[in-house]
Each structure stands twice: as structure tokens, then as C-alpha cells.
Write a structure and sequence with these properties.
The chain is an alpha/beta fold. It contains 14 helices and 17 strands. It has two domains: about 170 residues, Rossmann fold; about 200 residues, Rossmann fold (3-Layer(aba) Sandwich), CATH 3.40.50.1260. α7 links the parallel β9 and β10. α1 crosses α2, α7 packs parallel to α9 and α8 crosses α9.
């Protein structure tokens, strides 16, 4: 992202620097679970501290109502974990951008760090309200966006504040954009993409975009069944989007015309109900029984997908192959992840979201070249959409 102004070039000494981070992490009983997103922001924050900045971090957490403080979504436990990882005190205020937050920002010394309360406690955040953006901007002299996970949201802290203050891209944001766009624009081949998830409607734009870029597209997850129905195959009680069946069929034809080979599962693990203790069986793609639903790809499909991935030089993965949260339906996602990790010759990019969660669950992080912190943002970038968080950063001189 060398065409955008970088935090590396910003004059920050003695200045209050607002850093929009993505600390939307799981919190249970006041303890942060997965702290990957906090760790990902540390390089930018440490760079700023080393250069004498007074760092004001802001983030959202969860989905509060937007009507004020909610204890379940407070940033206080996040501040505690952030301080541990940073190895330095992090001040926290139970205020987003009012008098307490402003006073705390003005009290910072060079190198000190403040985390304000959950941005989404205020309804003006998601609405990109100009007055709310102006109040946030008062907390700093310079703005740095390091929250790739929300770069596709035109919210006040993402698009509003950088319209007011001198704005720069953080190291994480730039690294995410550069990695994903570089993968798309100059991939080593064969280029294999793996797409999963439940709905074709969520991924149709991504499938369309990738079919122009990749050599092979492996499809898994619930969206398989809309493609299967387009081919006239029985799907039992499996998830399907009837209004997308025709479009799915057209997409198969379009991909073939473009020289992209779309590969669908050969078999499935089916269940008599959506539950961890359901009765299961493995069936051919042509033989899903009435009343049964496909909840994972089958062993023949796992072997096929592993062979395709073993020969790849570039791999992009977004979306699980099945309901991997339940052990009975985790084998497909585990097999795909393992096949990618085992291919030391490929550059592998994991598109955040459930795929990143699966990689962590199965202990495969060290086998991946790059794991994105933003599922939705990475998908929109792959689709070719402009991201508000990137567009808001001025171009470099």
C-alpha cells in the first residue's frame, strides 16, 4: 500500500495519535480468549511509542445496542490484556469521547497509551455521524488506521475521523492490503482457492472475481448444495438458497468459459438433525437421503481436495468445509487446513473469519504464510470493492 501515506512517515513526536484498532476479541467472564487481534496491532503501537507519540487507541467490541454503556461489552478486560501484551501500562476510561476521555488524552506523556471505551456504545459510530466523528477527533492530533477488520465499514472512526485529522495507514492495515492484492495480481501458479461457508449469496461476488484469477476453485460448506441443486442432484434436507440456484448454475458455466475449474465434493457426511449427537452416515454426492442434511464434506472429497492443494503454488482459503465447531463434522475443514499447511512450496493466505478460527483450533498457524485479521474486509478486497478505511487515507506525496 505504498501509494497511501504510512505511519512510518508520520511526524508523531509529542503528538496525540488516535489509532483505530480492531480489538473485537472474545471476552468471557472478564477474560480475553483469543488475543490475536491485539497482538497484530502491537507493531504499529510500539513504533508510535518509540517515536514519542501519545497513543489513543479506540475500538468496538461485539454488538451492543448503541444506547450507552453495557458491562458485557466493556473494553476494560481488553485494556488489561493489552497492557500485558504491550509490557507497559495502558490507561482505560469508561468514556468514549466525552470530557473524561478528552482529559485522559491530554494527560498522556510521550510513549504512553490510552484505550477508550467501546465505540459502538454510541449510535453515532455506525451511522458515521459528523458530530460524533468530530468529538472523536478531539482526542488526537493525528489519525492512524490499523483496523483492517473494519476497513469495509464506513463508520465514524473509520471514515469520519480521517476526514478531519492528518491520516495514515498503520502497519497492519498496509500489510493486509498488500498481501491480498499481491496474491491476486501476481500469484505463483497453480493458484487454488478454497471457499466454504453456508450461503452462495454471501460469496457469489467473490466466486465471480476469483474465477477470473484462479486455476482451481474448491467449494465446500453449506453453499455446495445450491450448486448441487443447479446440477439436478438430490440434497435431502441440506441448506439451500432456492433463489440462487439458477445463478449458481450460470456461475459454473462462466467459470468453465474462463478456464477456471470449479471442484465440488464427491461425497458428504450427512446427519439426521443439526446437532453434535446426530446420527451420521457417509454418502455419495448422488445419494443424499430424504430428511438428511449434509454437514461436512466426505473422505473422498477430503482426499481430492488435498491432492489439488498439494500441487498449488498459491492458495487462498476462506470458509469452512462443514460445521467444524462440532467434532463429528470437523474432518473436512481439518483436512483442507492440514493439506495447505503441509504444502511448504505454496504461499497460503487465510481470509480471516471462521477459516482463521479453524486454523487456530487445529493448531495449524505455523503452516500458513498469512492469516488475515478481517474476514469481511478480505472478502470485499478479493471481490474488488473499494474499502472505506483504505479510501479515507490520503495518497502518499
Amino acid at each position: 500500500m505504498s501509494y497511501k501515506r504510512s505511519v512510518s512517515d508520520a511526524d508523531v513526536s509529542g503528538k496525540r495519535v488516535i489509532v483505530r484498532v480492531d480489538f473485537n476479541v472474545p471476552v468471557k467472564d472478564g477474560v480475553v480468549g483469543d488475543d490475536t487481534r491485539i497482538r497484530a496491532a502491537l507493531p504499529t503501537i510500539n513504533l508510535l511509542r518509540e517515536r514519542g507519540a501519545r497513543v489513543v487507541c479506540m475500538s468496538h467490541l461485539g454488538r451492543p445496542a448503541g444506547t450507552g454503556f453495557e458491562a458485557a461489552y466493556s473494553m476494560e478486560p481488553v485494556a488489561a490484556r493489552f497492557s500485558e501484551l504491550l509490557g507497559a501500562p495502558v490507561a482505560y476510561v469508561r468514556d468514549v469521547c466525552g470530557e473524561e476521555a478528552l482529559a485522559a488524552s491530554l494527560a498522556l506523556a510521550d510513549g504512553e497509551v490510552l484505550l477508550v471505551e467501546n465505540l459502538r456504545f454510541e449510535k453515532g459510530e455506525k451511522k458515521n455521524d459528523p458530530a460524533f466523528a468530530a468529538a472523536l477527533a478531539k482526542l488526537g492530533d493525528v489519525y492512524v488506521d490499523d483496523a483492517f477488520g473494519v476497513a469495509h465499514r464506513a463508520h465514524a472512526s473509520v471514515a469520519g475521523v480521517p476526514a478531519i485529522l492528518p491520516a495514515y495507514a498503520g502497519l497492519l492495515l498496509a500489510g493486509e492490503v498488500d498481501t491480498i492484492t499481491g496474491m491476486l495480481n501476481d500469484p505463483a501458479r497453480p493458484f487454488v482457492a478454497v471457499l466454504g461457508g453456508s450461503k452462495v449469496s454471501d460469496k457469489i461476488g467473490v466466486i465471480d472475481a476469483l474465477s477470473e484469477k484462479v486455476d482451481v476453485l474448491l467449494i465446500g460448506g453449506g453453499m455446495c448444495f445450491t450448486f448441487m441443486q443447479a446440477q439436478g442432484l438430490p440434497i435431502g434436507s441440506s441448506l439451500v438458497e432456492p433463489e440462487w440456484v439458477e445463478r449458481a448454475g450460470e456461475m459454473l458455466d462462466k467459470a468453465a468459459e474462463r478456464g477456471c475449474r470449479i471442484v465440488l465434493p464427491l461425497d458428504y457426511v450427512v446427519a439426521d438433525k443439526f446437532a453434535a449427537d446426530a446420527a451420521t452416515q457417509i454418502v455419495d454426492k448422488t445419494a443424499i437421503p430424504e430428511g438428511w442434511m449434509g454437514l461436512d464434506i466426505g473422505p473422498r472429497s477430503c482426499e481430492l481436495y488435498a491432492r489439488e492443494l498439494a500441487g498449488a503454488k498459491t492458495v487462498f482459503w476462506n470458509g469452512p468445509m462443514g460445521v467444524f465447531e462440532m467434532e463429528a463434522f470437523a474432518a473436512g475443514t481439518r483436512a483442507v487446513g492440514q493439506a495447505i499447511a503441509d504444502n511448504a512450496a505454496c504461499t497460503s493466505v487465510v481470509g480471516g473469519g471462521d477459516s482463521a478460527a479453524a486454523v487456530k483450533k487445529f493448531g495449524l498457524e505455523s503452516g500458513m504464510t498469512f492469516i488475515s485479521t478481517g474476514g469481511g474486509a478480505s472478502m470485499e478486497l478479493v471481490e474488488g470493492k473499494a474499502l472505506p478505511g483504505v479510501e479515507a487515507i490520503p495518497n502518499a506525496d
